[in-house]
Design brief:
single chain, mainly beta, 50% strand, globular
Length: 101
């Protein structure tokens, strides 16, 4: 799938994330240290929405059972999740951002 335009960089405040639905898939885009990171929004353990969790640096914590994931790689930082989540390339063009699913 080609890159899909989701919004403006200014739509996402620093230290937070926003969820988008693309092709029946939930994707969250987070802004950390001025960088945008896109991940699968569904926790691989509890099927909870990750954008609702607590963000600390590049780690998002699932608010259901506390699993933590690295926004840069999708790897599990702490359980109970054992499976990583998908991450997606983000590009910025003229103040807007696009995600490649």
């Amino acid at each position: 799938m080609p890159f899909v335009k989701l919004g403006k960089v200014s739509d996402i405040p620093e230290g937070s994330g926003k969820m988008y639905e693309i092709e029946d898939r939930w994707i969250s885009v987070f802004k950390v240290n001025g960088e945008l990171k896109a991940i699968d929004d569904i926790c691989s353990h509890a099927e909870a929405h990750l954008h609702e969790g607590e963000l600390e640096n590049y780690e998002i914590e699932c608010n259901a059972y506390g699993a933590r994931f690295d926004l840069r790689t999708g790897k599990v930082c702490s359980g109970p999740a054992v499976l990583p989540i998908d991450t997606f390339p983000v590009r910025i063009q003229k103040g807007s951002f696009e995600v490649d699913i």
